[in-house]
Amino acid sequence: MFKRVKKVENVVLDEEKSHIYLKDTNLPLLMIRPEELIEFGELAGSESVDILIWVGKSIGKSIAKEFIKTSDVAVLKFREKMKIINSILEILQSLGYGILVLNYGKGNITIDVGNPLSKDYIDNIMAKNICIIYNGIFTGLLEEIGIDSEGREINCVLKGADMCSFQYEFEQD
């Protein structure tokens, strides 16, 4: 049984700045309870989807910047990009985002999220906001690594699926 992280050993506290960082990086961490994401839709109204996607993309891009060791992502081969994405998904998994599995083929990437944060709020229709954040995070990761893609959620626990799945299609040389 997958359990959410209670004690995270891969974070570092900077008491002087009052910041939390992912260990061995300069990546600041932000703590948001899923309930706050769910309630955000009521606060922001019709603009909430765009804002949540933007927030997710910002998170995804920030994380990717910490793990990409070159300033020119165009020089990275596709398999190298997939290894970087997989490493990032492992970090997100260790932080409690669920069980994240990367699958890819020619021109498409699917990221499966087992035991997503939204699973605990299955009776709340606004839990869809959590799925929107996931989509934004994954879109931001892909953009930062140089994969311009169109993505969408194709399976969702809130609609009875066993896991959430996000598919991204792109042009591949």
Write a structural description:
Residues 1-7 have low confidence and may be disordered. The chain is built from four helices and six strands. A hairpin with a 4-residue loop joins strand 1 (11-14) and strand 2 (19-22). The chain has a four-stranded antiparallel beta sheet, covered by helices on one side. The N and C termini lie far apart (40 Å). It is globular, with a radius of gyration of 16 Å. Helix 1 crosses helix 2 (48-67). The chain has a single domain, classed as 2-Layer Sandwich (Muramoyl-pentapeptide Carboxypeptidase, domain 2), CATH 3.30.1380.20. The chain is α+β, with helices and mostly antiparallel strands.
Feature tags:
173 residues, 6 strands, 20% strand, two-stranded antiparallel sheet, Muramoyl-pentapeptide Carboxypeptidase, domain 2, globular, alpha+beta
